[in-house]
């Protein structure tokens, strides 16, 4: 039976250890793995970050070398000892006003796919780092270690949000290890059933061991604002203001992506979340936002949420490159806090 096999590349050209699948098991995905310089290859238990990319990624090697998210740089610069695992989800690209390609994350939702995937990658990594012991006849034998996951984090960018939504339900034995999900400009699912905001609100309401952090830009603003207000008990799932504020989810953070720094050597941009109280001043509809007399009140037909979304869209101008700035800076800042 075919099993995953990793090979090292970029030796001497990038710090740490960069690995790519030379072959993968049936049903798995080509994968890029990065061990930062601080990682001890002899370690048998370590924290793992699974990164789920979006469109415009040509293959799993492109993801580490060419993708504007610059994943290895964020892990390296954070100084944290985490193992970065990034499956290739397909190449999707724009053709006029539509998209073409083979990007798909449906299999990530199949029963225990996440468990099988991690088992395969950890098994391949164990074989790669296995020490060679000398024998009396001059041949070497390898003692394959059993690798274990400490904390597990799922991070995603852009279209990878649908992958993260699928993967949280297929982790199997690794489910208790999941400590956080980080979504960077990723809530595009307004038309799926249930929509992204509803899915994540219900998922978080049913468990308390995992935190969800969302950073959004203009293209994912509507679902992100909905999740923010519903999660804080300020809006109902149908977009109305509740009669009284409901308890907020303690394991949810939603913030608007912005920046107040500058590119460092043309590579790094730090994204700093705007102060939540400052955002609320513009986002939450006030008395002046209510429609005039004779119109339907803001508490019906989702008008409260619609007005909040419009308020944010009008209040915060986003730079053109905010989509990847959120991925770079958001990923780095959260890694740094581990």
Could you provide a short overview of the structure?
With 338 residues, this protein is α/β, with parallel strands linked by helices.
Distinctive features:
338 residues; alpha/beta; nine-stranded mixed beta sheet; 9 helices
Would you give an account of this structure?
- It is built from 9 helices and 13 strands.
- The model has no long low-confidence stretch (mean pLDDT about 90).
- The protein is about 30% helix and about 20% strand.
- By secondary structure, it is an alpha/beta fold.
- The strands form 3 sheets. Strands 1-2-3-5-4-10-11-12-13 form a 9-stranded mixed sheet. Strands 6-7 form a two-stranded antiparallel ribbon.
- Helix 5 (about 195-205) packs parallel to helix 6.
- The two termini are about 40 Å apart.
Number of helices: 9
State mean pLDDT (0 to 100 scale). 90
Q: Distance between termini?
A: 38 Å
Could you say which structural class the secondary elements and strand pairing correspond to?
alpha/beta
Rg computed from alpha carbons, rounded to a whole number of angstroms: 22 Å
Helix coverage percent of residues?
25-40%
Q: From N to C, what is the helix and strand string?
A: EEEEHHEEEHEEEHEHEHEHHH
């Amino acid at each position: 039976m075919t099993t995953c096999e990793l090979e090292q590349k970029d030796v001497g050209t990038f710090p740490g250890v960069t690995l790519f699948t030379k072959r993968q098991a049936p049903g798995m995905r080509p994968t890029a793995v990065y061990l930062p310089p601080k990682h001890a290859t002899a370690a048998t238990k370590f924290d793992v970050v699974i990164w789920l990319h979006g469109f415009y990624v040509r293959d799993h090697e492109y993801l580490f070398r060419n993708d504007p998210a610059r994943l290895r740089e964020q892990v390296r610069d954070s100084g944290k000892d985490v193992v970065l695992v990034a499956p290739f989800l397909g190449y999707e690209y724009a053709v006029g006003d539509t998209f073409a390609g083979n990007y798909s994350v449906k299999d990530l939702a199949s029963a225990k796919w996440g468990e099988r995937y991690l088992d395969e990658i950890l098994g391949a990594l164990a074989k790669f780092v296995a020490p060679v012991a000398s024998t009396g006849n001059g041949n070497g034998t390898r003692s394959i270690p059993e690798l274990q996951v400490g904390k597990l984090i799922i991070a995603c960018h852009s279209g990878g949000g649908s992958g993260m939504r699928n993967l949280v339900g297929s982790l199997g034995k690794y489910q208790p290890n999941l400590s956080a999900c980080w979504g960077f400009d990723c809530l595009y699912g307004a038309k799926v059933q249930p929509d992204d905001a509803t899915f994540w609100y219900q998922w978080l309401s049913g468990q308390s061991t995992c935190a969800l952090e969302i950073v959004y830009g203009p293209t994912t603003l509507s679902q992100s604002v909905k999740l923010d207000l519903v999660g804080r008990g300020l809006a109902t799932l149908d977009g109305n203001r509740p009669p009284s504020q409901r308890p907020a989810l303690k394991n949810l953070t939603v913030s608007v992506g912005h920046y107040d720094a500058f590119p460092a050597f043309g590579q790094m941009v730090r994204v700093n979340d705007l102060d939540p109280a400052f955002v609320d001043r513009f986002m939450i509809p006030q008395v002046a936002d209510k429609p005039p007399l004779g119109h339907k009140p803001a508490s019906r037909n989702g008008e409260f949420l619609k007005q909040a979304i419009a308020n944010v869209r009008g209040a915060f101008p986003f730079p053109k490159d905010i989509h990847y700035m959120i991925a770079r800076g958001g990923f780095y800042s959260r890694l740094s806090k581990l």
